[in-house]
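Self-study notes.
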Amino acid sequence: MNVDIVMVDNYIGGKFVAPSTAKYLDVVNPANSHAIGKVGLSSSKDIDDAVAAAEAAFPAWSARTVKSRTAIMLKFHALVRENARELAELIVKENGKNLTEALADVAKGNETVEYACSLPQLCQGKQLQVSGGVYCVDRRDPLGVVASIVPFNFPFMVPFWTTPIALVMGNTVILKPSEKVPLTMRRVASLFQEAGFPDGVFNMVQGARDAVEAIIDHPKVKAVTFVGSSPVAKIVSARCRALNKKCTALGGAKNHLVTLPDCEMEGAASDICVSFAGCAGQRCMAASVLLLMGKQDDLLNSLVEKASKLKPGSCSGEMGPVIDEGSYKKIMAYIEESEKNGAKLLLDGRSWKKDEGNWVGPTIILHTSPKDKAMREEVFGPVLSVYECSSWEEAIEIENSNPFGNAASIYTTNGGNADWFLSRFQAAMLGVNIGIPVPREPFSFGGLYGTQSKYGDMDITGDGAMEFFTNRIKVTSKWPVSRTPMKKSRDQMEGHKDSANFAGQM
């Protein structure tokens, strides 16, 4: 089979540049294990070059008004819409999502671009007279060069949790995509250029651990965001903290769904199926544990029936592969250990195994102990652990005892029942009759402080990102009363003309 191999280089200062190491990794299609590209492995020299380009672009970019920066972002938003199908097809090829999921990946990322375009109406500072003739003003100033390190599971959406907000707020950006899925953002870099972003405002470096460490350690990089596994998120946060550097690092999840006997059964079964099996379970908001209040055989049978009808593939309604062989083997290990320890496989996805590709079918496991590993640890695949609870208190105890704090949901038709659980869940993003309770803009995304789902500062989107990517500057002033009339306008004194200013001209 002849496949055009795409070379994925760094994007620095408005140009694609080969890595100084001249080393590349294969980019592999997870559906068939065929190489579809080669991605560069950057060194600290490449990071130095990217930072230098971003630093050189910062003075002019940050000097623009927020409205001026937003005007360019609006052009980019339109280009993403025009090229959404092409971007989605790249996501299918390198990530394995079906086409509907890939189009949603693009649309959700572009929704954050829309939010960024509203920042002129949201980012104003405050002013107050705090004493006789004394005024306090605060404003948001950009940090400078900032970096975002992103995972494989949403090649477009997750980079755009941060990039558009950071740019509109006046920062220059260095993005490090996952080396497993670099093709989508390679195409996006050209859209940034087409939209009119000046050279050096957006930069992209490829690579693995060496590139990440060089980004974090660079003294000119003022802030770092990271999304990935909890162990790495913890390391990234600690490394940034040691350098007194701003950091938001989002880790993994173990999301619990609770169903009460009064829930709307068919709707709940459909929603739970999509939550645990959609995107092959490779999302930090996916359902991982289903806690049933007592015996709910009708619900469970309906769920198994719906999941068993899923077919492997990339068309709408089909389920794609997991990202690589390492993920495949990890998921297999959880299934096999659960079976060995006495859990019952209501649906066994191991039957999807093929000679090529990383195919795991939807798997539903009925556990007899909440201490089974698959009940406690992040699997990150299309596996749903089910446990029958004897009481509401037991369900809350199980949910609260897990070390993560991303999401939890309750299925019920009774508002009082929902409130009881919502007030006791220990997670930051909660749902009622929603299996993937992702906050949509303008609400911000992020896990619970003090858990393995979140390290560092702020949420990663919304007003959390606006705060993260700026410094609040406070100015307190008192001026003597001036009795000298102004003879020149402010524009004349500053040496430029504001063509949108109607004062004194017609």
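Second protein, same conventions, sequence then structure:
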Amino acid sequence: GITFKLNVWQSTRHDEELAMLKFRRMLKQLRSFHGQGTSMISLLIPGKGCLSRTLKMLGEEFGTA
């Protein structure tokens, strides 16, 4: 009935708000990190990205650092 649909909507909304809260906390923590020169990197791997290729690329970068 309508009560079930409302509860599902509220649950979904709560899950989204919780996910945003966790994301903001993580972003705040990441902003607090500091490095010298290239001692710290950010790496974004697409969901359909090839992990082995990314690891190879990181290994090559590490070798030149």
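Instructor comment on the second fold: The mean pLDDT is 77.
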